[in-house]
Amino acid sequence: NVPNTPCVFLGCLDPEKFKDFKLVKRTQLSHNVAKFKFALPTPTSVLGLPIGQHISCRGKDSLNEDVVKPYTPTTLDSDVGYFELVIKMYPQGRMSQHFQVMCEGDYLAVKGPK
Ligand SMILES: Cc1cc2nc3c(=O)[nH]c(=O)nc-3n(C[C@H](O)[C@H](O)[C@H](O)COP(=O)(O)OP(=O)(O)OC[C@H]3O[C@@H](n4cnc5c(N)ncnc54)[C@H](O)[C@@H]3O)c2cc1C
């Protein structure tokens, strides 16, 4: 991406650098699965993730150490302005722990496409 260029056509991801996306809605789907909806910078932005590719998400584990894991959004680039992740949370999972404690308004560091 060219710096400061709206990611309407190019997509919002940077394969080299983590970018922060705001959690705007968290929906519990079962006892250990939740859907996380993240806002893109503008309502007309697209994530820019080709089908079959995934993103890297960075968080902190219970020891406050960085952890990076791959995830596949359940949304497509035809879903403008946001993307969603459906996450299964494991009791001792390092990245799961990060998602477990995320609240609406928090930011997630994301890099991609991978
Ligand atoms: C391309 C790709 C896309 C993915 N997309 C998604 C997605 O959309 N949604 C999703 O939920 N996941 C997805 N995953 C899986 C995701 O990347 C993580 O592996 C998952 O979230 C678990 O990570 P974690 O750090 O929470 O758990 P980990 O810390 O890796 O632990 C997972 C489980 O193993 C147990 N465990 C860990 N170490 C040990 C040990 N030494 N002995 C015994 N048990 C142990 C933990 O207690 C826990 O129950 C995807 C993976 C890939 C490769």
Automatic annotation (TrEMBL):
The question of whether Flavoprotein is a record keyword is answered with: yes
Location in the cell: Mitochondrion
Identify the residues that the record assigns to the FAD-binding FR-type domain, covering every copy.
16-114
**Cofactor(s) for this UniProt protein:** FAD
**What CDD domains does the annotation carry?**
cyt_b5_reduct_like (cd06183)
User: Which keywords does this chain's UniProt record carry?
Assistant: FAD, Flavoprotein, Mitochondrion, NAD, Oxidoreductase
**Biological process terms in GO annotation:** electron transport chain
Gene3D superfamilies documented for this protein: Translation factors
Top-level lineage group: Eukaryota
UniProt enzyme class:
oxidoreductase
Report the EC code(s) recorded for this entry.
1.6.2.2
Q: Where does FAD bind?
A: P70, Y71, V86, K88, M95, S96
Q: What are the protein's GO molecular function terms?
A: cytochrome-b5 reductase activity, acting on NADH
Its GO CC terms are:
mitochondrion
**According to its UniProt record, which protein family does this protein belong to?**
Belongs to the flavoprotein pyridine nucleotide cytochrome reductase family.
Protein's name in the database:
cytochrome-b5 reductase
What's the source species for this entry? Prunus avium (Cherry)
